[in-house]
Amino acid sequence: MELSERKKAILQAIIEDYIQTAEPVGSRNIAKNHDLGLSAATIRNEMADLEEMGYLDKPHTSAGRIPSEMGYRFYVDSLMHRYSLTMEEIASLQSSMDRKYSQLENVVSEISDIISKATNYPAIVELPMAQTSRLRSVKMMLIEQGSVLIVVVTDAGVVRNRHMKVSGDIDYEVIDSISEFLSGQLTGLCADDFTPARLMLIYEAMASYGDFLKTVIEFVLECLTNGQRRVYVGGASNILKNPEFENIDRAREFLSFIDSRENVSQMLSLLGNGEDAPISIKIGSENAVPEMRDTSLVVANYSVGGKLHGKIGIIGPKRMNYARVISSLELINSNLTEILGRMIYGKDE
Amino acid sequence: MELSERKKAILQAIIEDYIQTAEPVGSRNIAKNHDLGLSAATIRNEMADLEEMGYLDKPHTSAGRIPSEMGYRFYVDSLMHRYSLTMEEIASLQSSMDRKYSQLENVVSEISDIISKATNYPAIVELPMAQTSRLRSVKMMLIEQGSVLIVVVTDAGVVRNRHMKVSGDIDYEVIDSISEFLSGQLTGLCADDFTPARLMLIYEAMASYGDFLKTVIEFVLECLTNGQRRVYVGGASNILKNPEFENIDRAREFLSFIDSRENVSQMLSLLGNGEDAPISIKIGSENAVPEMRDTSLVVANYSVGGKLHGKIGIIGPKRMNYARVISSLELINSNLTEILGRMIYGKDE
DNA sequence: GTTAGCACTCAACGAAAGTGAGTGCTAACA
DNA sequence: TGTTAGCACTCACTTTCGTTGAGTGCTAAC
After folding, report:
1. List of E strands, chain B
2. B61 CA, C25 C1': separation in Å?
3. What DSSP state is assigned to residue B79?
4. CB less than 7 Å from strand D: which protein residues?
5. Which of residues 12-51 of B touch strand C (CB under 7 A)?
6. CB-CB: which of A153, A248, A255 is closest to B143?
7. CB–CB of A234/A14 below 8 Å?
8. Mean pLDDT in runs of 10 for chain B (349 residues)?
9. Is B135-224 in the same CATH topology as B87-130+228-345?
10. What are the start-end ranges of the H helices in B244-348?
């Protein structure tokens, strides 16, 4: 059944009041504060309908109504207006992101702080990752006698390195020649190309350095497959600013869930890779994670150079200023893309 | 005034009971549960003395006593017995740390999780840093036309890299020769050695690549001076397990403080560099940070290869099992040192 | 279809009384 | 002189119970 325009207006008024006050809203208040030209009694009737249809809930008989998850969903999909950030908000965001970043981990952790400061909710930022990487470069450097540094660069721009112990009699030139040989053999390959046959050839060609090569190749493979996704959470304690988390048990449940990176990372992976929509919103139990049943999750996907992907988002109470959060995430998202582009590919656009 | 043996025994009993129960302890309970051979009335008299001397506090007239900060301090300095971890505890710690780590950031964040799981308190781990580093190696790699990767290794074993854009006409061999030249000029220097005179010489020798060199040298300097300390916090929500943080305002104050890496890092820097004692303990307001006045901080210093230093520690309520925390930190500390040694210097011991 | 009126519901607040763990003091005891 | 039993007193905490007030649902009139 379609909602009448009047019902929509009332539903919207209720939700927006509730988002602001966190108090169940009563018919009288709607009649007074919103110019709907209706009396409290009429609104009461409509509210009863809306409740019956599932858009509203009642905490108890003598309280006002609060939006149900279905109500929020309808609001987000059909009623909500876009929020335009003010000039001040934009300026403040821009300036907080306008600085030099040196390491990927720093960017990601700082962005999560920025998001949580901007929205007043806990923020999540995923480290960018490639779906399938190819090896762009592998190089070994002799750091000191007996110690070699392996540096791997993938075509997504990810750089990783690892120290390795070698027997003392390998010198600078040997390292260089192995380095060059391996580079020639492996550059351009992705993880699937590391077939036993191909590896066998390499080992045979350089039989005297078998152990050495094995370590290097394992590390290269590790970089190409790249383990689990990593996330940063910023401003987790912001959740305590919301009255729905005055209850210490709820707060504890939420915070101990979010304290674990694995939990958060797994939750994000349930969202899919966002090919359908740039921003995905999970309201309450739409999110399959039971600990999150009282919260909403708003997540945007970013991608850098078409190769690297990741997610940024926030978690807040279901009663959340969705419009504002979405606008902030969009702006931060585009800045982040730019920063990462500059950083990883060294481009100045 | 010296405390009599009997007063010490009573003080110890009170503190240990309070650590366990978090309830003010009364004279009757001490008489019953601890075999001191004294009646409640006698203990009452002694408790009155201890209170007058400042070792105990009274929340209100009709409650039992709780230790004052001075009481805890005396306990930690003079009364506390060493706690021996059980075989199970040791085995479980060892096994949770016994895996391969690839990146420094991963080690540090995982260690913070391990500490917080082992102690049930929020844990802090600082990234290892060198006090003064010398450059061990700088190398440039041409990744693709127009994009160069700079890799810097310091004598402390820290490796960092950064992408840099270059004009397209610089090829592989040019990069290599600049790389070799710079390496020869800069290897072995520390930040203070980068005098204007020396830099001038370098710029003059390679005048045609001025901008290029400038970027590289700036990055090297950045690596040698190395910015601010970075910390990881794990298991922050553990603090909510303690009854003293049932109060939502206290919880909020604590968690929002600890949510900020700068706050935590600054707090650690107030501790000095631990040359005096391997473990430092700050009880309540001994810690100058006002938000931490209700908590205690236990911090151990670690060092790797004599070059890299850092701190690990926990924050808990003043009513904390100090002995157990200290033993756990010591064990984790030694494992961490070993892991980092292997990782950074590629040594297998 | 809309609205005024009214009885009804129920969480929240607050005062009052009861409960009990614990103290401090006194007087008797070893 | 140090220790202990006894007892009056204190005070947070809990429970009870009435009050308040925001809000609903229903009915009847407009």
Report:
1. 56-57, 66-67, 123-126, 129-130, 135-144, 147-154, 159-165, 231-234, 279-283, 295-304, 308-317
2. 14
3. I
4. A 23-29, 40-41, 44, 47-48, 51, 58, 61-65; B 37-42, 45, 59-63
5. 23-29, 40-41, 44, 47-48, 51
6. A153
7. no
8. 88 96 93 89 94 93 93 96 95 89 83 96 93 87 85 86 82 86 91 90 85 88 77 96 91 95 92 79 95 96 87 97 97 93 67
9. no
10. 248-259, 261-269, 322-345
Measure, in angstroms, how far nucleotide C6 C1' is from residue A319 CA: 34
Q: Domain-by-domain residue ranges, chain A?
A: 5-79, 87-130+228-345, 135-224
CB of A228 within 8 Å of a chain B CB? The answer is no
- Residue at B12: amino acid letter: Q
* Residues A144, B136: C-beta atoms closer than 8 Å: yes
Q: Residue A154 in 3-state DSSP?
A: strand
Fold of B87-130+228-345: Beta-Lactamase (3.30.450)
Lookup: tokens for B145: 């036309």
Question: Residue B290 carries which side chain, given as an amino acid letter?
Answer: P
Smallest CA–C1' distance to C22, residue:
B62
Contact A141 B149 (CB under 8 A): no
Quick one: CATH architecture of B5-79? Orthogonal Bundle (1.10)
Q: Does A165 touch chain B (CB under 8 A)?
A: yes
Assess contact for A115 and A331: CB atoms under 8 A: no
State the pTM of this model: 0.89
CA distance B142 to chain A (A): 9
Do A129 and A229 touch, CB atoms closer than 8 A? yes
Higher pLDDT, B305 or A235: A235
Cβ(A115)–Cβ(A125) under 8 Å?
yes
Q: Does A134 touch chain B (CB under 8 A)?
A: no
Q: Which residue has the tokens 């930690």?
A: B76
Q: Which segments of B199-245 are extended strands (E)?
A: 231-234
Q: What gap in Å lies between CA B7 and CA B49, rounded to an integer?
A: 9
Structure tokens at B348: 């297998």
Helix pair angle (A87-97, A322-345), 10° resolution: 30
**Token pair of A136, please?**
């762009």
Please enumerate in sequence order all residues whose Cβ is within 8 A of that of A209, keeping only pairs 6 or more positions apart, or say none.
Answer: A170, A178
Q: Which of A160, A256, A345 sits opposite B147 (nearest CB)?
A: A345
Name residue A111's amino acid: I
pLDDT tens sequence across A204-227: 888 888 888 888 998 898 888 865
Interface test with A, best of B237, B241, B250 (most A CBs within 10 A): B237
Tell the CATH topology of B135-224. Enolase-like; domain 1 (3.30.390)
With CA atoms as reference, the chain A residue closest to B154 would be A143
